[in-house]
Write a structure and sequence with these properties.
This protein is mainly α and 146 residues long. It has one domain (7-139). The protein is built from 4 helices and no strands. The protein has helices spanning 7-16, 18-51, 60-104, 109-139. Helix 2 (18-51) runs antiparallel to helix 3 (60-104).
Length: 146
């Protein structure tokens, strides 16, 4: 069995893209955690909205304030998921570009570097939004029915 001259280049690319593949796993785990947080916020909003009709006039402002905070949390989680997915897409493009460069024998190192930086920036934004959502969740008083 004879190997083409570019097979060693492709095997080198396989070794180089192992780290981005692990990054994809980490981003997937972050998306799963964000999805759980989004589900909990949606469930809490539904519960609170169901209780609104049975609340006294004194309790309504507190519950409505919590609903507004939940809406902000849901928006933050949604955008955090969006940026996590964008980060994962950049990583996938990075891996594809690395292989394409090896197959076509073109130097795409600047493109690959740009894709990696873009993936990291999107991930940083994702994590900052996640941190903001956690801060909102922890610092907001919760309406407790009497």
């Amino acid at each position: 069995m004879t190997f083409e001259p570019h097979v060693p280049e492709i095997s080198a690319v396989i070794q180089l893209v192992v780290a981005p593949v692990f990054l994809l796993t980490a981003v997937g785990t972050i998306i799963a955690a964000l999805n759980i947080r989004l589900g909990r916020a949606v469930d809490r909003r539904r519960d609170l909205e169901g209780m609104l009709s049975h609340m006294s006039a004194a309790e309504l402002p507190s519950a409505r304030e919590e609903l507004q905070t939940i809406a902000r949390r849901m928006r933050d989680v949604y955008f955090s998921i969006l940026f996590a997915v964008i980060s994962a897409l950049f990583v996938c493009l990075l891996i594809s570009t690395a292989f394409l460069g090896a197959i076509v024998r073109t130097d795409l190192s600047y493109t690959i570097g740009g894709l990696f930086v873009s993936a990291m920036l999107a991930l940083v934004i994702c994590l900052l939004l996640f941190l903001r959502e956690i801060f909102l969740a922890v610092s907001t008083p919760r309406y407790i029915p009497r």
